[in-house]
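testing teh design pipeline on a random one, pls ignore if ur not involved
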């Protein structure tokens, strides 16, 4: 997995969604079986974000565990390693049920201090 280009596409997607507003927090979910090196994402994030509205944003990354099911003996098991082997029979013929997620969960932007448009006007008697 190329973490640099991955980070670039994440930041591009964030900037596109937020329309250039200053981003303060980016939350990602990167499954443990995705093969993505989270430390590399963290490192690339600051480099790629420099000069964009995402610069200086905090990066929160969830790393959910994976699950697999063996196609040979039907054992279901938790898997935290990108190389998934069945703990029952050692088979590598495994269906990955979860753990390959790679999603942007949420993004927070800094709100500008503008008065609310629908503010009620004060009536004077
Ligand atoms: Zn098995």
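output:
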């Amino acid at each position: 997995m190329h973490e640099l280009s991955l980070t670039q596409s994440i930041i591009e997607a964030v900037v596109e969604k937020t329309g250039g507003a200053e981003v303060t927090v980016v939350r990602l979910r990167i499954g443990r079986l995705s093969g993505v090196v989270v430390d590399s994402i963290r490192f690339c994030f600051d480099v790629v974000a420099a000069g964009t509205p995402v610069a200086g944003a905090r990066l929160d990354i969830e790393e959910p565990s994976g699950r697999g099911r063996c196609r040979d003996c039907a054992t279901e098991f938790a898997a935290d390693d990108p190389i998934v082997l069945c703990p029952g029979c050692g088979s590598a013929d495994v269906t990955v049920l979860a753990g390959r997620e790679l999603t942007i969960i949420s993004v927070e932007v800094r709100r500008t201090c503008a008065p609310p448009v629908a503010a009620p006007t004060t009536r004077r008697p």
